[in-house]
Specification:
The complex is a heterodimer of chains A (215) and B (204).
Chain A lengths: L3 E2 L6 E3 L6 E3 L24 H21 L3 E5 L2 E5 L1 H10 L3 H30 L6 H14 L5 H16 L2 E5 L1 H19 L3 H16 L1
Helix pairs in contact in A: 1-3, 1-6, 2-3, 3-4, 3-6
Chain B lengths: L2 E2 L6 E3 L6 E3 L8 E3 L6 E4 L6 H19 L3 E5 L2 E5 L1 H10 L3 H30 L7 H11 L5 H15 L4 E4 L1 H19 L2 H8 L1
Antiparallel strand pairs in B: 2-3, 4-5, 6-7, 6-8
Helix pairs in contact in B: 1-3, 1-6, 2-3, 3-4, 5-6
The structure holds zinc ion.
């Protein structure tokens, strides 16, 4: 089942929260609020591109210490071993647990990089007013939104380990600074994805089409 | 300043590409998809009130169980000990990692609990035929909180941690691990049942 096409030009705003479409005056001077749910209406998320960039650049900077610093320190029989995200995945691989090693590697190493690269590409393409491959870009956006949260898995592994091994009294596990930076990367990329307005992709498609009909 | 659109229920703007389109009058079953980008605009069908409410109440019980019982049982040289969901967070606070502890506390305790409470807060009055106070705020909060509730990811973390330790010690999943698994299932079922736009049409 599909919706019927409707050609309505301008002057319409849809509410982010409840979806109600309302008509607004030509000049957007006053603050508009949704007649149904009362939330402030915006044509697009305000300063979407610059705010999204800010979160993304911060995430890129945290990504480096997140991978270089240890996420935990394990002390047993007087010896201390420190694990980074990569060495943790390597440990699983060496001990024959390759499916888990793969999960940790994909979720912790691959997903954040891919997410940062995709968001950067989307932001640049919107800033360059590129009208091409809109549908593919929207799919990429949905993918990053869906997959990004899963990078938190290593932070949770550390949380469970510090409690368990502490109780056993055979070893001591301490969370490392890398885990803090890592959680920061996940939170910041989630903010970056949430402040990006996917409708900006289509604004360029629309502008491009309008330019061609007037020419 | 803002006019209601005349046929307010049939005109929608896609939340991902902003294409304005009219919904078909006949929309009893299935989903209506955006003409341009294909995202779901509208879930047609009867408004489910009983199902989300039941799922919310079940989730509350499971959430309490998940926190009251041990998550993993740790056995070594005949000694046994077990850990709880909150113990890890408390340990992170003790290790001077307040930021990390807060992120874990928020994503595994506060956000899921808020999600569950809001489900009950919204759907219990609706089931009794009343509109809950601050309906707009509550519904908006559900939409905001949803991505931050990460119990399914936490469960994967428990699994990885258990496997990592299984070489040195005997690790047995505790009752909380099972109830957490059920809770993840119940919460994702609830998420597919809640359609904010349809709720708005109901209470407006
Ligand atoms: Zn659309």
């Amino acid at each position: 089942m599909s919706a019927a096409s409707h050609s309505l030009a301008g002057n319409h705003l849809a509410c982010h929260t409840c979806g109600l479409v309302s008509r607004h005056p030509e000049v957007l001077t006053a603050r508009l609020s949704c007649p149904r749910c009362g939330v402030e209406l915006h044509h697009r998320i305000p300063r979407s591109v610059s705010r999204s960039w800010a979160f993304l650049v911060a995430a890129m900077m945290l990504y480096i210490p997140a991978n270089l610093l240890p996420i935990m320190h394990v002390t047993s029989l007087g010896k201390t071993r420190s694990d980074t995200i990569l060495s943790g995945a390597e440990y699983l691989l060496v001990h024959g647990m390759w499916p888990l090693a793969l999960i940790v590697f994909v979720a912790s190493v691959l997903v954040p990089v891919v997410k940062i690269l995709i968001l950067a590409y989307l932001l640049i393409s919107v800033q360059r007013r590129s009208p091409g491959r809109a549908m593919e870009r929207l799919r990429l956006y949905r993918f990053t939104e869906f997959v990004g949260r899963w990078s938190m898995v290593d932070v949770f592994v550390v949380t469970v380990l510090v409690a368990l091994v502490h109780l056993g009294n055979v070893a001591e596990i301490e969370a490392g600074l890398g885990a803090v930076f890592f959680a920061g990367v996940v939170v910041l990329t989630m903010f970056a994805a949430q402040t990006f307005d996917p409708r900006l992709i289509w604004d360029n498609v629309r502008a491009h089409a309008a330019r061609h009909t007037t020419e | 300043m803002v006019d209601h659109f005349h046929s307010k229920h049939s005109l929608v703007a896609c939340h991902e590409c902003d294409e304005l389109q009219r919904l078909p009058a006949e929309r009893e079953r299935g989903r209506v998809r955006c003409l341009r980008c294909g995202c779901v605009l509208h879930h047609a069908g009867r408004d489910a009130i009983a199902a989300p409410l039941a799922l919310g109440l079940a989730a509350l019980v499971l959430f309490v169980l998940s926190n009251a019982f041990p998550l993993l049982d740790f056995g070594l040289h005949g000694r046994h000990d077990s850990t709880y969901l909150l113990a890890g967070i408390r340990e992170l606070f003790n290790q001077d990692m307040p930021l990390l502890a807060s992120v874990v506390l928020f994503t595994t305790i506060i956000a899921p609990l808020l999600h569950i409470s809001l489900l009950i807060y919204l759907y219990l009055p609706l089931a009794l035929g009343r509109r809950p106070p601050a309906f707009a705020k509550a519904l908006r909060l559900v939409q905001t909180i949803l991505p931050w509730s990460m119990l399914e990811i936490f469960l994967l973390g428990v699994l990885v941690a258990g496997v990592k330790l299984a070489e040195q010690a005997t690790i047995v999943a505790g009752p909380a691990a099972w109830s957490l698994g059920l809770l993840v299932f119940v919460l994702s079922a609830a998420a597919t049942q809640v359609h904010p736009q349809r709720l708005w049409e109901r209470v407006a």
